[in-house]
Amino acid sequence: MARPILPLVLDRVSLDIGGTRIVSDFTLRLEPGQRTVVVGANGAGKSMLLRLCHGLVAPTGGSIAWNGDPAGRQAMVFQRPSMLRRAALDNVAYGLKLRGVPRAEREARAAEMLARVGLSHIARRPARVLSGGEQQRVALARAWALAPEILFLDEPTASLDPGAARAVEDIVLAMASEGTRIVMTTHNLGQARRIADEIVFVDKGRIAETAPSDRFFTAPATPAARAFLKGELPW
Amino acid sequence: MSTFADAFAAAASLVAQGDARLYAIVALSLQVSLAATAVAALIGLPLGAFVALARFPGRRAAVAALNAMMGLPPVVVGLVVYLLLSRAGPLGAFGLLFTPGAMVFAQTILIAPILAALARQTIEDAWAEHGEQLRSLGASLPQAGATLLWDTRFALTTAILAGFGRASAEVGAVMIVGGNIDGVTRTMTTAIALETSKGDLPLALGLGVVLIATVFAVNAAAAWLRDATQRRFG
Predict the structure, then answer these.
(1) How many other C-beta atoms can be found within 10 angstroms of the C-beta atom of residue B56?
(2) Does domain B2-233 have CATH number 3.30.360.10?
(3) Is B151 within 8 Å of chain A by CB?
(4) Which of A39, A42, A222, B83 is the most exposed place for a label (fewest CB within 10 A)?
(5) How many domains in chain A?
(6) Which of A74, A85, A155 to mutate to test binding with chain B, by most B CBs within 10 Å of its CB?
(7) How far from the centroid of its chain's Cα atoms is residue A168's Cα?
(8) pTM of the predicted protein model
(9) A40 by DSSP, 3-state: which?
(10) Is B50 helix (H, G, I), strand (E, B) or coil?
(11) What is the pLDDT of residues A157-189, one digit of tens each?
(12) Residue A13 lies in a domain
């Protein structure tokens, strides 16, 4: 067994794009076995935090250090699911194919994963003609099939109706209960409360506050977080 | 005007009767252009995908060159291939000049840049949509290229048909490297040029009708394919 990949430690991570500072100071430690939800205003750097962690974007300053080699042990689900022009089942099997899993085995596993997200009946349908909610569940099945130790989700329900969003939440919680570390962004604070046991609050390219979910929502420590909660919550 | 009507009637009867000379010319034309399209696709599509996805010094120049080469003048391509294949040329030993092989060679050079340039644009657009997901799943550059070539297969088929249309309609390159030898390298376009200058308008017009019908059929197929697959696969 390889070394566990967590904790993941970000130390004063910064990012400049074309001379503009996007992220100025991300310092964060992600421990095993929690569900972290990243909240903050639009443009605060939530998505960039996930992309930096996942390795899609290289930081221009600071360091991102995994405890173990993360290659092939992490996955990400995006706001807009990217579906290839092939059947839903083949989209789920695609990630396994890249890892060299034999055809029979990957198709069996993909079928099992589609069943777990409740989509067995559309396995043979072209993925791109499915509804947005169905596509996002296919994307979750594709990530789940890889059995990642950590899953990043970038606003996975932002363009979905409430019913579809709840279906996505249920799948995320099921994956968490099987031991996948969840790190998700959302602008829906109700959803953040339902999913999170830890909240990371991002403000203007900095991590302003990291706190257990209960404490963040009842007694935010920073003025920025208090202002954010006051502005976001109607009560 | 009556010349035109007479010629048209004669042409129609040639087509309808299955004139052997006419159909031999049509068959050779299609063989040459289909072979050139196949070879050009095998070269152009992977090349286009590579230029779309790889990051290397001079990439912008390569993209500009590909786009510029879409407009290569057929006679100049014919001239260059003629020089390459002539006895004294670097490829003269193969004895290809004035054979159908030489015409396939020339048309391949003519349309491979078209397929590469169209594939480059198509794959780049697909990468904008799928790039992060493919990188997240750990796809290597060749894997991503192969995946996106397959994913854009319908758009690329349209590009291939455009290349075929260009190959089958050009006259300059096949005239120079093929030589328009009766029964050996005479295609629809070279025959039309020759028969018109000889005054045998019915044969020229008959070939013209077949050529236009071919190009129309190819474009109709491209449009149909685009619509049908859009509905089916999204």
Answers:
(1) 8
(2) no
(3) yes
(4) A42
(5) 1
(6) A85
(7) 12
(8) 0.91
(9) coil
(10) helix
(11) 999 999 999 999 999 999 999 999 999 999 999
(12) yes
